[in-house]
């Protein structure tokens, strides 16, 4: 059995706080920050459980996400 595991980097200063990525994430591992970036926008923060599905990458109009994904065996 295998499952995908992943992570993302978030270029918080490029974020415009539109919130589109939050509901787009299937495992719901993104939430908006309490604090704001230099432009005054809340930005997403990553929690455990990213699958590397790239949904956030595809929905973000400002190219904030870089996605890393790997297939891992689970015994
Ligand atoms: S790659 Fe998928 S699982 Fe990971 S944060 Fe983005 S939408 Fe969520
Ligand atoms: S979709 Fe992109 S611009 Fe919008 S809140 Fe998420 S990271 Fe920021």
How would you sum up this structure, described in words?
The chain has one domain (2-69): 2-Layer Sandwich (Alpha-Beta Plaits). The chain contains 2 helices and 4 strands; from the N terminus they run βαββαβ. The protein has helices at residues 21-24, 55-59, and strands at residues 2-10, 30-36, 42-46, 65-73. It has a two-stranded antiparallel ribbon with strand order 1-4. Strands 2-3 form a two-stranded antiparallel sheet. Strand 2 (30-36) and strand 3 (42-46) form a beta hairpin. The longest helix is centred in the C-terminal third of the chain and has 5 residues, at 55-59. The mean pLDDT is 94. The structure holds iron/sulfur cluster (SF4) (2 copies). One iron/sulfur cluster binds next to strand 1 and helix 2.
Could you outline the blueprint of secondary structure elements for this entry?
Elements: E1 2-10, H1 21-24, E2 30-36, E3 42-46, H2 55-59, E4 65-73
Antiparallel strand pairs: 1-4, 2-3
Residues 15-21, 43-44, 59-60, 62, 64 line the site of one iron/sulfur cluster.
Name of the CATH first level: Alpha Beta
Strand arrangement within the widest β-sheet reads 1-4
- N-end to C-end Cα span: 7 Å
Helicity range of the residues? 10-25%
In the CATH classification, which architecture applies?
A: 2-Layer Sandwich
Record field, number of beta strands: 4
Low-confidence region ranges: none
What's the number of structural domains? Answer: 1
Largest sheet: 2 strands, antiparallel
